Amino acid sequence: MQIETKYLGQVDIIEENIKYFEMGILGFEDEHEFVLLEIPNNDHFCFLQSIHTSYIAFLVVNPWDFFEDYDVEIPDEELKKLGILPDQQNQMAIYSIVTLGDTLKESTANLLAPVLINLEDKKGKQFILNDSLYATKHKLFPQEIGE
């Protein structure tokens, strides 16, 4: 299947790789089908691209690539909505949506509302962490001392 994307032009995707977000992504509740697209020559970032609306794509990262102490607890009832049992969390991928700054150093990750994907049945959900110390804007590259 071919889709038009915001950043990579036309790409071929495998239908089995489509992730279904019943509730959409926050602010884009009418978009339900997305695919993860790798960025050539980049090991950290990828796009979560709508398969129906070419201009809707989110830059995402594995949060532990940048925040090794990131501690996220997903309640059992949320796991159940994704079809994941509490002892099967290895079936789940977690991503953070990135907001690009004027420079890459100013870019931030949303650690408050991670994107959860069941790797087995391809269900996805953006989940807001309750009572969390995390925010929607954590710098990917903390400032160096003296900057």
From TrEMBL:
Is the Coiled coil keyword given for this protein? Answer: no
Which GO biological process categories is it annotated with? bacterial-type flagellum assembly; regulation of translation
Location of the protein in the cell = Cytoplasm
Against Gene3D superfamilies, the record matches this protein to: BH3618-like
Query: InterPro entries annotated for this entry?
Result: Flagellar_assembly_factor_FliW, Flagellar_assmbl_FliW_dom_sf
Which cellular component, as a GO term, is one annotated location?
cytoplasm
* Keyword list, A-Z: Bacterial flagellum biogenesis, Cell projection, Chaperone, Cilium, Cytoplasm, Flagellum, Translation regulation
- Function, please? Acts as an anti-CsrA protein, binds CsrA and prevents it from repressing translation of its target genes, one of which is flagellin. Binds to flagellin and participates in the assembly of the flagellum.
What family classification does the UniProt entry report for this protein?
Belongs to the FliW family.
Assembly information from the UniProt record: Interacts with translational regulator CsrA and flagellin(s).
Question: What is this protein called in UniProt?
Answer: Flagellar assembly factor FliW
State the gene name recorded for this protein.
fliW
